[in-house]
Specification:
two-stranded antiparallel ribbon, mainly alpha, elongated, about 260 residues, 12 helices, single chain
């Protein structure tokens, strides 16, 4: 798992130089219509001018992203020789980085990244590809962490093997989709389908352990995985409900991404 993460990170600068991903258009959005459908603020600081999107949402995403990153680094420094703490800290670090990347492309600088200087806005960006990369690392690092903290023997080895295979397969699909490019292969929907088993596995392991040992940590983790699953379900319900558009028509911005 360490090697998979290391080699993937080494490829980031090379991969990011490719521009085919921007050829996936969002045919419903033009630079002119973007700010009609998203809160925008024009920032002018001397020689620097840019459009900031969703200021309030961006603040909370960045705050939570940096907070998670800080907590992960803090846990990493206190890991001692515990492998479960090492992988929990890595999972939080990757999660924090992913949140910052998502906040940059989906929210704060979405206009500058996807729309500025184009006839039609792009549907996605390399910032979002990197978001999926780090989020997949985070999800699989959690699996390894739980493998060390809550299992042993053959089950532990199988979970670690699963995490490695899941990371390899997903990122192979992700970057293949980015190079082709293919919309579904770089979508949040596909990421959810591939990462959903992780939540289920973690929930089952911590639930079984709690019923057996009554450990408070297992109870907390059990509820964490359950709530993550509920949030994803609510996200899709809200996304297709039409409520985000109705609220924005009244001047209230709260879209599906804010739920995450």
């Amino acid at each position: 798992m360490h090697k998979i993460i290391r080699y993937s990170l080494l490829l980031l600068p090379l991969i990011g130089g490719c521009s085919r991903l921007a050829t996936i258009p969002d045919a419903t959005q033009t630079p002119e219509s973007w700010c009609q459908n998203h809160p925008c603020a024009t920032i002018d600081i001397g020689i620097v001018q840019f459009t900031l999107n969703e200021p309030s949402s961006s603040f909370f995403v960045y705050f939570l992203g940096f907070l998670t990153l800080w907590f992960g680094i803090h846990l990493f420094k206190r890991r001692a020789v515990q492998k479960s703490k090492l992988w929990f800290s890595l999972a939080l670090i990757f999660w924090g980085i992913a949140a910052i990347l998502a906040g940059t492309s989906y929210q704060a600088f979405s206009y500058e990244i996807k729309c500025a200087g184009q006839a039609f806005c792009s549907w996605t960006s390399w910032w979002e590809i990197y978001y999926y990369l780090f989020q997949s690392f985070s999800m699989n690092a959690f699996v390894v962490a739980i493998a060390y903290s809550s299992t042993e023997g053959k089950l532990r080895k199988n979970l670690m093997l699963y995490a490695a295979i899941n990371a390899i397969i997903y990122n192979a699909v992700l970057f293949t989709g980015a190079f082709l490019p293919n919309k579904f292969m770089v979508s949040f929907e596909l990421f959810t389908l591939i990462s959903a088993p992780n939540f289920l596995i973690l929930f089952i392991i911590n639930t079984k352990n709690y019923l057996k040992t009554k450990e408070l940590l297992d109870l907390r983790l059990m509820w964490l995985w359950f709530l993550q699953g509920v949030i994803i379900v609510v996200y899709f319900i809200y996304l297709f409900s039409g409520y985000p558009e109705q609220l924005w028509a009244k001047g209230i911005w709260f879209n599906a991404n804010d739920l995450l």
